[in-house]
Design a protein that fits this description.
heterodimer, A: seven-stranded antiparallel beta sheet, 23 helices, about 35% helix, globular, B: about 120 residues, mainly alpha, about 0% strand
């Protein structure tokens, strides 16, 4: 009996320990995960935590004092510039380590290491668009420049100084959740971070879908549906600006008509993991002639996926060579959007297409050679070994052609034959040191310094806004943009010789820009940068409506103060609806509607055109328009599951406002010849079905329908770490660009008085730890459309009570 | 009764001390050792270690979580138990350690009995 009891208890004991220690039985190893000494309880940060510390670290040259204010924003005072970057690295790691590593693992196509084989397609895609190749190329340029190298080395050393001292119980929660440990940081990881951002902002293209649409529709109809020059264009650079003529020979190759515009082929596979085309931003600057103080005011709000931990980390960096404040990216040194004692700077995305595909022909399945300029040319094979958690590594051979990596071939997209493949030419692969721009912007004192700084930037092309305390304002669309002949790169190009390659880049001084314009203001909101008089072909994915509201307001306002700029950033006016709704209402056949449908119609016809949370009209209008777009285009565009992409909203709106017998209105799948009235009514009836379902769930108001959510980076896997149902209006095409999970990721307004006045807020908090009160502490302020005063601390403020904690760093 | 109290006190303290050096399963070692060296009925071995660890660990976690205003407890509760109540997740966390300690104490005691009689 006693032996039996011993055996039984041993068995139960062993089994229990095993079950609680492994991830194979329960999704989490609850034994360690819920353990008081090493599990998540160690991440439960006391709400009265004392952040004071005296740290002696290897790698510092001198002393650095960091004062944390009540929002946990660090104000870093360093006698040596490199020490400031060391400490910035340390702080990024201390508060944001997991996200930095996760994002750079994602950039490098290493997610399968963490999540297992469900990450494999993502990882292969990252490797095949050449993300690591791009980062390696960037690193060469960054490390060639002494100033950047010194900053990067110090930043990396600071991060590693934190990681090396980290013990298991102090690991961020996500490591405990996913079951892995951080590795040391490297300069390459900073380069990978930059490339991840580059892909987010300059990785969206529609070449494959456009190629299909061209085949389905023919050239004439294609041009109608996919124009990128709206009638209602408010270009970034004011209309009327005179552009010099192009000095380049930009004629298409002789074969373009037959091999390019009239190619007969469709691409059957879908591109995965396309960046969100909503990634964009607003920025504007008003000159002293329009402000109450007589000094410029600059505003910027970059629109990105709203995530916790936030993509941004607020910081002030004070060194003998500069003093800057703003938000930084955990992953790279310096302040990315912000101001110093003399200037303010911000960015919006250019939206320009800098990414093209070339169809190439491999000799055989081995991908060792491809046909180029009349001969078989060797490709470089890069064997990507993708580690997979709990499994053997996956080996993926990526061929590199003269154009760049061959993203799509038979091994990745099985609908392709062994020979046919698509190679990627992307500006992101070019060697460049964009960090240098921030190194210089942080210390820039005037317009010339800003100009010098931005000249180092290549991709993702940005609209770079500027204001100085001396009263100058400027806006440059800066980046390296390919010199293209008209329509080059809209479709997949033939890659059998060099005739379709880019002919170089547009010289920087011919990039659209404006300095101290007569209007007294400048703005950008991801629209096309220039009107049709600009001499270069500039394809891209552009916003049309946000710029209209912004320009109207800026033109009409005078005596502007920070309060006016706050109102503009929070503006929920739907200018698209202002133009589209009359067309809908004039063409609906009320007699055909049921009682319920009439009720919905009443909601939308009495709507005040504001995308406020309480409005039901916004929901009705949005669904109605989407329904109309589907009713009108689906029959023309959707053929045999061939991937295509919807035309931009302005295309349908502008077509219908000019021509009520627009050629796409008729539904080709019916015998009847439908009119606009038929289709608008049908679209409304279809929309009503959705509206009625929403109404049953109490989700008809815009706020309930949109359900603005700031997800944790692990998305729906970690819903308790998210903030759902935020009561904030706005939407796509609205100045307040908040959609369901995307929108203003940082809102900043700077008035260039002496001293400079600044306000800002982001939907997150300074700590990346879901167990800290500082994890999401700014979200309520952000949701209400309110801001924090940003304080550029001086050494005199050391005694000020609002600087609650001091971390002293010194050399060991 | 004295043995029960000693076991009740020693087991969690030993578990905590071992836990500073070893992974989470060191609570099993604590239970095992306590069970082996403190002679009492197996059921009492189990109960003393189980209750000792339950109260000690539960109290410790409550102390940590209370200082955190239960911000994390509620999130982890939702994540693991689909229940926001902080007491549930604190209870489950303590229960896991207590159960391992208690069963290990039975194992330790059973081994001691076998060895002694052999």
């Amino acid at each position: 009996m006693k032996y039996f009891i011993l055996a039984l208890s041993l068995l139960v004991n062993g089994l229990l320990v095993y079950v609680l220690d492994t991830r194979k039985v329960l999704p989490l190893p609850l034994g360690s995960f819920l353990n008081v000494q090493e599990g998540v309880w160690q991440n439960a940060e006391a709400v009265d935590k004392d952040f004071n510390a005296d740290l002696k670290l290897d790698g510092l040259k001198g002393e650095v004092n960091v004062y944390f204010d009540e929002r946990l924003v660090p104000h870093v005072f360093a006698a040596e510039e490199s020490d400031a970057y060391f400490v910035q690295g340390y702080l990024h790691a201390k508060f944001r380590l997991w996200q930095m590593e996760f994002q750079t693992h994602a950039a490098a196509g290493r997610i399968s290491e963490i999540v297992g084989s469900k990450g494999l397609t993502f990882d292969r895609n990252q490797r095949r668009i050449g993300m690591v190749f791009a980062a390696e190329n960037a690193l060469v340029a960054m490390e060639k420049d002494a100033q950047t190298l010194s900053a990067l080395n110090a930043y990396t050393a600071g991060i590693n100084s934190f990681i090396k001292k980290l013990n298991t119980s102090e690991l961020p929660i996500e490591y405990k959740l996913l079951g892995y440990e951080p590795e040391l940081w490297s300069n390459l990881k900073s380069a990978l971070f930059i490339k991840q951002m580059t892909n987010t902002l300059a990785g969206y293209d529609r070449d494959l879908e456009f190629t299909n649409a061209l085949e389905i529709l023919g050239e004439e109809k294609f041009r109608v549906l996919y124009s990128d020059i709206p009638d209602s264009l408010y270009p970034v650079i004011p209309t009327g600006t005179i552009y010099a003529e192009s000095r380049f020979d930009l004629n298409p190759p002789d074969s373009a008509d037959s091999l390019y515009f009239k190619r007969k082929d469709t691409i059957e596979f879908v591109e995965d993991y396309k960046p969100d085309p909503l990634n964009g931003s607003n920025n504007w600057v008003v000159g002293g002639s329009k402000t109450k103080s007589g000094k410029p005011i600059l505003a910027n709000d970059p629109h990105l996926s709203l995530t916790l931990p936030s993509i941004w980390y607020e910081i002030q960096i004070n060194t003998p060579s500069f003093n800057s404040y703003g938000v930084s990216f955990p992953g790279i040194p310096g302040v990315v959007i912000g101001y110093n004692d003399s200037i303010a700077f911000g960015f919006t995305n250019s939206g320009r297409d800098v990414k093209d595909y070339y169809e190439i022909l491999f000799k055989d399945k081995s991908k060792k050679s491809y046909f180029f300029n009349n001969e078989w040319t060797d490709s470089k094979l890069r064997i990507e070994s993708i580690k997979i958690k709990d499994s053997l590594p996956f080996l993926d051979t990526v061929a590199y052609s003269i154009f760049g990596p061959v993203t799509y071939d038979h091994a990745f997209k099985h609908s392709l034959s062994n020979e046919k493949a698509y190679a990627l030419r992307w500006v992101a692969h070019d060697t460049s040191n964009i960090l240098k721009m921030w190194m210089l912007l942080n210390r820039a004192k005037n317009y010339n310094d800003y100009y010098q700084a931005i000249s180092h930037f290549n991709v993702p092309g940005q609209n770079m806004i500027f204001a100085s305390t001396s009263g100058d304002i400027a806006l440059w669309q800066q980046g390296t943009f390919p010199l293209r002949w008209q329509d080059q790169g809209l479709f997949v190009m033939p890659g059998k010789d060099s005739s379709y390659m880019w002919k170089g880049y547009i010289p920087m001084d011919e990039n659209p820009h404006s300095v101290n314009p007569a209007e007294g203001y400048l703005s950008s909101a991801n629209q096309r940068a220039a009107d049709i008089t600009y001499p270069y072909f500039m394809p891209g994915s552009y916003e049309v409506y946000r710029p209209i509201t912004i320009n109207r307001k800026l033109a009409e306002l005078s005596n502007i103060s920070i309060v006016d700029m706050k109102q503009l950033q929070n503006n929920n006016y739907n200018v698209f609806a202002e133009m589209a709704l009359p067309i809908l209402l004039n063409n609906i056949d009320i007699d055909r509607l049921s009682t319920d449908e009439k009720r919905y119609l009443n909601m939308v016809s009495s709507w005040n055109l504001m995308n406020d949370t309480k409005e039901k009209g916004t929901t009705c209008f949005t669904i109605w328009w989407d329904s109309l777009s589907a009713v009108i285009f689906n029959d023309d565009l959707i053929k045999d599951k061939i991937p295509v992409i919807k035309p931009e909203k302005f295309v349908l709106l502008e077509a219908l406002s000019k021509d009520s017998s627009f050629m796409f209105i008729d539904d080709l799948s019916t015998e009847k010849l439908e009119t606009l009235r038929d289709q608008v009514t049908l679209a409304f009836q279809k929309a009503s079905l959705k509206l009625s379902a929403l109404e049953k769930d109490n989700k008809l108001t815009w706020g309930e329908f949109k359900n603005t959510t700031v997800y944790h980076l692990l998305k729906t896997n970690t819903i308790p770490f998210a903030r759902e149902g935020l009561n904030i209006g706005g939407g796509a095409g609205i100045v307040n660009a908040t959609t369901h999970d995307h929108g203003p990721s940082w809102k900043m307004i700077i008035e260039m008085e002496t001293p400079i006045k600044a306000v800002g807020v982001y939907p997150g908090g300074q700590s990346g730890n879901p167990g800290s009160q500082y994890y999401d502490s700014f979200i309520d302020t952000w949701t209400k459309g309110e801001y924090y005063d940003l304080t550029m601390m001086t050494k005199k403020d050391v005694q000020d009570r609002k600087f609650k904690w001091k971390m002293k760093f010194s050399a060991k | 009764m004295m043995k029960f109290i000693v076991s009740f006190l020693i087991c969690p303290l030993l578990a905590y001390a071992l836990g500073m050096l070893l992974p989470w399963w060191s609570v099993a070692i604590a239970g095992f050792l306590t069970g082996s060296f403190i002679p009492q009925h197996r059921l009492l071995s189990f109960l003393s270690c189980f209750l000792g660890v339950l109260i000690f660990v539960g109290g410790l976690i409550y102390y940590i979580s209370d200082a955190n205003n239960h911000i994390l407890a509620q999130k982890i509760g939702l994540l693991v138990l689909k229940d926001k109540n902080e007491f549930m997740i604190i209870g489950v966390s303590a229960l896991i350690a207590a159960l391992i300690a208690g069963i290990s104490a039975i194992t330790g005691r059973s081994l001691a009995i076998v060895v002694k009689k052999a």
